[in-house]
Amino acid sequence: MADGRNNIDRRSFLKNAGVIVGGGAIGAAGIALRPEMALAADAVKSVPKTVTQFRCPICNKDFATFAELKQHFKTDHPEHVEPVTTKLNINGEDCEVLIEPHWTLQRTLLFKLGLSGAKHMCGRGACGSCTVIMDGKAILSCMTLAVECEGKKIQTVEGIAADPKWRPLIDSYCKWDAMQCGYCTPGFLVSAKALLDKKINPTEEDCRQALAGNICCCGTYNRHPTAIMEAAPQIAKGGK
Question: CA-CA distance, 159 to 186, in Å (whole number)?
Fold first, then answer.
Protein backbone atom coordinates (compact mmCIF):
# COMPACT_ATOMS: atom_id res chain seq x y z
CA MET A 1 0.00 0.00 0.00
CA ALA A 2 1.29 3.45 -0.88
CA ASP A 3 2.39 5.77 1.90
CA GLY A 4 0.30 8.93 1.59
CA ARG A 5 3.09 11.08 2.96
CA ASN A 6 5.68 10.30 0.30
CA ASN A 7 3.78 8.26 -2.31
CA ILE A 8 6.32 5.41 -2.17
CA ASP A 9 4.98 1.87 -2.12
CA ARG A 10 6.93 -1.26 -1.22
CA ARG A 11 7.33 -2.47 -4.80
CA SER A 12 8.71 0.88 -5.96
CA PHE A 13 11.12 0.89 -3.06
CA LEU A 14 12.44 -2.56 -3.96
CA LYS A 15 12.89 -1.60 -7.61
CA ASN A 16 14.57 1.73 -6.96
CA ALA A 17 16.42 1.41 -3.68
CA GLY A 18 19.63 0.36 -5.39
CA VAL A 19 20.56 -2.19 -2.76
CA ILE A 20 23.29 -4.60 -3.80
CA VAL A 21 24.49 -8.14 -3.28
CA GLY A 22 25.98 -8.57 0.17
CA GLY A 23 24.16 -5.61 1.71
CA GLY A 24 20.98 -5.80 3.75
CA ALA A 25 18.28 -8.44 3.45
CA ILE A 26 17.35 -7.63 -0.13
CA GLY A 27 20.93 -6.85 -1.13
CA ALA A 28 22.07 -10.16 0.30
CA ALA A 29 19.34 -11.81 -1.71
CA GLY A 30 21.06 -10.72 -4.88
CA ILE A 31 18.49 -8.07 -5.89
CA ALA A 32 21.14 -5.84 -7.42
CA LEU A 33 19.55 -3.27 -9.73
CA ARG A 34 21.21 -2.22 -12.98
CA PRO A 35 23.49 0.54 -11.61
CA GLU A 36 24.86 -1.99 -9.13
CA MET A 37 25.52 -4.82 -11.59
CA ALA A 38 29.12 -3.63 -11.78
CA LEU A 39 29.38 -4.01 -8.00
CA ALA A 40 28.01 -7.54 -8.21
CA ALA A 41 30.64 -8.25 -10.85
CA ASP A 42 33.29 -6.76 -8.56
CA ALA A 43 32.23 -9.16 -5.80
CA VAL A 44 32.71 -12.03 -8.23
CA LYS A 45 36.07 -10.78 -9.50
CA SER A 46 37.46 -9.88 -6.08
CA VAL A 47 37.60 -13.41 -4.67
CA PRO A 48 41.21 -14.10 -3.59
CA LYS A 49 43.07 -16.07 -6.24
CA THR A 50 45.76 -17.51 -3.96
CA VAL A 51 46.34 -17.97 -0.25
CA THR A 52 48.39 -15.07 1.09
CA GLN A 53 47.91 -15.55 4.83
CA PHE A 54 48.83 -18.77 6.62
CA ARG A 55 47.24 -18.33 10.04
CA CYS A 56 46.79 -21.09 12.58
CA PRO A 57 43.05 -21.42 13.37
CA ILE A 58 43.90 -22.70 16.86
CA CYS A 59 46.29 -20.07 18.22
CA ASN A 60 46.10 -17.37 15.50
CA LYS A 61 49.84 -17.36 14.82
CA ASP A 62 50.84 -16.31 11.31
CA PHE A 63 53.38 -18.16 9.19
CA ALA A 64 55.18 -17.30 5.97
CA THR A 65 54.37 -20.55 4.17
CA PHE A 66 51.90 -23.41 4.26
CA ALA A 67 54.75 -25.82 5.03
CA GLU A 68 55.61 -23.83 8.17
CA LEU A 69 51.97 -23.88 9.25
CA LYS A 70 51.78 -27.65 8.79
CA GLN A 71 54.95 -28.13 10.82
CA HIS A 72 53.49 -25.90 13.54
CA PHE A 73 50.46 -28.20 13.75
CA LYS A 74 52.65 -31.27 14.07
CA THR A 75 54.69 -29.63 16.82
CA ASP A 76 52.16 -27.58 18.79
CA HIS A 77 48.74 -29.03 17.92
CA PRO A 78 49.24 -32.74 17.23
CA GLU A 79 45.74 -33.50 18.51
CA HIS A 80 44.12 -31.33 15.83
CA VAL A 81 43.53 -31.99 12.13
CA GLU A 82 45.77 -29.87 9.93
CA PRO A 83 44.19 -27.24 7.64
CA VAL A 84 44.30 -27.81 3.90
CA THR A 85 44.48 -25.69 0.77
CA THR A 86 41.64 -26.19 -1.69
CA LYS A 87 41.29 -24.90 -5.24
CA LEU A 88 37.81 -23.85 -6.30
CA ASN A 89 36.15 -22.35 -9.36
CA ILE A 90 33.54 -19.84 -8.23
CA ASN A 91 31.45 -17.97 -10.81
CA GLY A 92 34.12 -18.70 -13.42
CA GLU A 93 36.98 -17.46 -11.24
CA ASP A 94 39.72 -19.83 -10.07
CA CYS A 95 40.70 -19.32 -6.45
CA GLU A 96 42.54 -21.04 -3.63
CA VAL A 97 41.56 -21.08 0.04
CA LEU A 98 43.11 -22.26 3.29
CA ILE A 99 40.45 -24.02 5.35
CA GLU A 100 39.91 -26.71 7.91
CA PRO A 101 38.84 -29.98 6.24
CA HIS A 102 35.40 -29.95 7.87
CA TRP A 103 34.44 -26.53 6.50
CA THR A 104 31.33 -26.49 4.34
CA LEU A 105 31.17 -24.74 1.00
CA GLN A 106 28.74 -22.19 2.46
CA ARG A 107 31.14 -21.31 5.27
CA THR A 108 34.03 -21.08 2.83
CA LEU A 109 32.12 -18.81 0.45
CA LEU A 110 31.26 -16.44 3.29
CA PHE A 111 34.38 -16.33 5.44
CA LYS A 112 37.12 -16.97 2.89
CA LEU A 113 35.73 -15.51 -0.33
CA GLY A 114 33.46 -12.75 0.97
CA LEU A 115 30.40 -14.04 -0.90
CA SER A 116 27.42 -13.74 1.43
CA GLY A 117 24.61 -14.72 -0.95
CA ALA A 118 24.43 -18.40 0.06
CA LYS A 119 22.76 -18.09 3.46
CA HIS A 120 23.26 -20.12 6.61
CA MET A 121 19.87 -20.75 8.15
CA CYS A 122 19.03 -24.34 9.10
CA GLY A 123 22.52 -25.80 8.73
CA ARG A 124 21.10 -29.25 7.95
CA GLY A 125 19.93 -29.13 4.35
CA ALA A 126 16.28 -28.49 5.13
CA CYS A 127 15.59 -24.93 3.95
CA GLY A 128 17.41 -24.28 0.65
CA SER A 129 18.70 -20.83 1.66
CA CYS A 130 22.28 -21.91 0.96
CA THR A 131 21.60 -23.23 -2.56
CA VAL A 132 24.31 -22.86 -5.18
CA ILE A 133 24.79 -24.51 -8.57
CA MET A 134 27.56 -27.08 -8.96
CA ASP A 135 28.24 -28.43 -12.44
CA GLY A 136 24.75 -27.42 -13.52
CA LYS A 137 22.89 -28.91 -10.55
CA ALA A 138 21.39 -27.07 -7.59
CA ILE A 139 23.04 -28.26 -4.37
CA LEU A 140 22.96 -27.31 -0.70
CA SER A 141 26.23 -25.63 0.21
CA CYS A 142 25.67 -26.12 3.95
CA MET A 143 25.75 -29.89 3.37
CA THR A 144 28.70 -29.93 0.97
CA LEU A 145 32.31 -29.93 2.12
CA ALA A 146 34.43 -27.37 0.31
CA VAL A 147 37.16 -29.96 -0.27
CA GLU A 148 34.63 -32.00 -2.27
CA CYS A 149 34.26 -29.14 -4.74
CA GLU A 150 37.73 -29.20 -6.27
CA GLY A 151 37.44 -29.58 -10.03
CA LYS A 152 33.78 -28.51 -9.98
CA LYS A 153 32.25 -25.31 -11.33
CA ILE A 154 30.30 -23.43 -8.67
CA GLN A 155 27.86 -20.61 -9.36
CA THR A 156 26.41 -18.42 -6.61
CA VAL A 157 23.68 -15.80 -6.57
CA GLU A 158 26.37 -13.12 -6.94
CA GLY A 159 27.34 -14.58 -10.30
CA ILE A 160 23.71 -14.63 -11.39
CA ALA A 161 23.18 -11.01 -10.30
CA ALA A 162 26.24 -9.92 -12.29
CA ASP A 163 25.09 -11.58 -15.53
CA PRO A 164 22.80 -9.38 -17.72
CA LYS A 165 21.11 -12.50 -19.11
CA TRP A 166 19.44 -13.10 -15.75
CA ARG A 167 18.22 -9.55 -15.15
CA PRO A 168 14.68 -10.48 -16.24
CA LEU A 169 14.46 -13.06 -13.46
CA ILE A 170 15.52 -10.56 -10.81
CA ASP A 171 13.27 -7.84 -12.24
CA SER A 172 10.34 -10.26 -12.30
CA TYR A 173 10.93 -11.20 -8.67
CA CYS A 174 10.74 -7.49 -7.81
CA LYS A 175 7.64 -6.95 -9.93
CA TRP A 176 5.72 -9.80 -8.32
CA ASP A 177 7.00 -9.21 -4.77
CA ALA A 178 8.34 -12.75 -4.67
CA MET A 179 10.16 -11.98 -1.43
CA GLN A 180 9.43 -10.46 1.95
CA CYS A 181 12.40 -10.30 4.33
CA GLY A 182 14.70 -11.46 1.51
CA TYR A 183 16.82 -13.87 3.54
CA CYS A 184 15.70 -16.97 1.64
CA THR A 185 15.56 -15.24 -1.76
CA PRO A 186 19.11 -16.17 -2.90
CA GLY A 187 18.25 -19.85 -2.66
CA PHE A 188 15.04 -19.39 -4.62
CA LEU A 189 16.80 -17.42 -7.36
CA VAL A 190 19.56 -20.00 -7.69
CA SER A 191 17.05 -22.87 -7.82
CA ALA A 192 15.04 -20.97 -10.43
CA LYS A 193 18.16 -20.39 -12.50
CA ALA A 194 19.05 -24.10 -12.32
CA LEU A 195 15.54 -24.91 -13.57
CA LEU A 196 15.68 -22.42 -16.45
CA ASP A 197 19.09 -23.73 -17.51
CA LYS A 198 17.39 -27.06 -18.21
CA LYS A 199 13.86 -26.01 -19.17
CA ILE A 200 13.46 -22.55 -20.65
CA ASN A 201 9.67 -22.74 -20.86
CA PRO A 202 8.68 -24.23 -17.49
CA THR A 203 5.14 -24.89 -16.35
CA GLU A 204 3.85 -23.88 -12.94
CA GLU A 205 4.29 -27.47 -11.79
CA ASP A 206 7.90 -27.47 -13.05
CA CYS A 207 8.57 -24.36 -10.97
CA ARG A 208 6.97 -25.78 -7.86
CA GLN A 209 8.95 -28.99 -8.18
CA ALA A 210 12.23 -27.11 -8.70
CA LEU A 211 11.57 -24.94 -5.63
CA ALA A 212 10.26 -27.75 -3.43
CA GLY A 213 13.44 -27.74 -1.34
CA ASN A 214 13.31 -24.00 -0.65
CA ILE A 215 11.47 -22.74 2.42
CA CYS A 216 10.13 -19.19 2.81
CA CYS A 217 9.08 -18.32 6.35
CA CYS A 218 7.20 -15.30 4.96
CA GLY A 219 5.02 -17.51 2.74
CA THR A 220 5.60 -16.05 -0.74
CA TYR A 221 5.36 -19.43 -2.49
CA ASN A 222 2.58 -18.63 -4.98
CA ARG A 223 4.48 -15.67 -6.43
CA HIS A 224 7.61 -17.57 -7.41
CA PRO A 225 6.19 -19.59 -10.33
CA THR A 226 4.56 -16.45 -11.73
CA ALA A 227 7.85 -14.53 -11.56
CA ILE A 228 9.83 -17.36 -13.13
CA MET A 229 7.39 -18.05 -15.97
CA GLU A 230 7.12 -14.38 -16.86
CA ALA A 231 10.90 -13.98 -17.01
CA ALA A 232 11.54 -17.15 -19.00
CA PRO A 233 10.81 -15.84 -22.56
CA GLN A 234 13.11 -12.84 -22.14
CA ILE A 235 15.87 -15.00 -20.65
CA ALA A 236 15.55 -17.31 -23.66
CA LYS A 237 16.31 -14.29 -25.86
CA GLY A 238 19.44 -13.43 -23.89
CA GLY A 239 17.94 -11.28 -21.16
CA LYS A 240 19.06 -7.68 -20.49
Answer: 11
- 37-43 contacts at long range (C-beta below 8 A, 24 or more positions apart): 37/161, 37/162, 37/164, 37/167, 40/158, 40/161, 40/162, 41/162, 43/114, 43/115, 43/158, 43/162
Give CA–CA dist 146/106, Å, rounded.
8
Lowest mean pLDDT among 16-20, 89-93, 105-109, 234-238: 16-20
212 within 8 A of 231, measured Cβ to Cβ: no
Q: Give the single-character DSSP code of 145.
A: B
CB contact set of 78 (below 8 Å; sequence gap of 6+)? none
Closest CA to 161 of 30, 26, 46: 30
What digits encode the pLDDT tens for the residues 130-164? 999 999 999 999 999 999 999 999 999 999 999 99
What CATH number does domain 163-238 carry, 1.10.10.10, 1.10.150.120, 1.10.3810.10, 2.30.42.10? Answer: 1.10.150.120
